[in-house]
Amino acid sequence: MSKPKKGVLLVNLGTPDSPSVPDVRRYLTEFLLDGRVIDIPAWRRTMLVRGIIVPFRAPKSAKLYQAIWGEKTGSPLLHYSRLQQRMLQEQLGDEYHVELAMRYQNPSIESALANFKQMMVDRIRIIPLFPQYASASTGSVIDKVMELIRTWHTFPELAIVNDFYENELMVEVFAEHAQKHRPEDYDHFLFSYHGLPVRQLRHIDNTGTHDCDEAGCRERITEKNKWCYLAQCYATTRLITTRLGIKSEDHTVCFQSRLGKTPWVQPYTTDVLKDVAQKGKKRLLVFCPAFVSDCLETIYEVGTEYADEFKALGGEKVQLVESLNTHPKWIMALQQLATAGDYLPYRQHSELGQTI
Length: 356
Fold this sequence. Notes:
- The chain folds into two domains: 6-164 and 328-355, Rossmann fold (3-Layer(aba) Sandwich), CATH 3.40.50.1400; 182-320, Rossmann fold (3-Layer(aba) Sandwich).
- Helices cover 46% and strands 15% of the residues.
- It is built from 13 helices and eight strands.
- Strands 2-1-3-4 form a four-stranded parallel β-sheet, sandwiched between helices. Strands 6-5-7-8 form a four-stranded parallel β-sheet, with helices on both faces.
- Helix 11 links the parallel strand 7 (283-287) and strand 8.
- Helix 3 packs across helix 12, helix 6 crosses helix 9 and helix 6 (168-179) runs antiparallel to helix 12 (328-339).
- The two termini are 28 Å apart.
């Protein structure tokens, strides 16, 4: 077997090592101390995170992780990510070596890069597993990789996937997953993306004064807003709704998981639930296209918390559309991203693909 010449690094956000309070505390501390996540002066961020947020949030978050933690599979995010890594490796063959890392906690980016360095690969292609670009997610991954790799004496060729919000195969997977739930049985569709502080959107261009309303970020992608997280979220939504034939009046884009009291991108998912309930909507089909693997934010926040909230408002059902997870077309999409458009024959997955 020849030595792999090309490395592919898949990076997702992160997960605690276990659902115990100490491990959740460790994960939240690393995550929230990232200056790209909470972009305020370091001393204020440290006081806020270590003194207020983590002490109160860790025990509550640990209970939520315990609710979704698999007895054999553990963290759903890590479970699906490992399967994606294995399936992509099978697809790419021996010329490539695929590593998986989490931006926060384990497996670490540092250990993945160390493996590439030892193997002396000629190229490393970094794929942050976030369809829409944001400084707090993709930007943070790139920042960490550069911080670690800058100490190397020799550098392989580096390539970075900044976003893939309009990837056709990704759109097809979300549409196919939705079809399994019979969209015609639902009277409204939510596209719930992870939230982001409004202030972070202002810095997508060199002026630092980007305005989504003026740039038309909810209607179109242009040269001025092509890096805007909000614009990319709406673009992904348009592609999925077009594929499924969902009318504009029948769906709503919203944002979940906000933190703190500063303004975040709106509308908030919780507010939209109240609004659609007041309009008499009873059955909601919810997409979460900011996530490539089901995790706490999809399984629990949407599948449990929002479902209970909507029923308390008079609704009947909230159905989560599964994420990309291990769908073969998603692995094909990863292959496209990993090879930068180079043609490689598609390999039918063997026993791995049949058991997922």
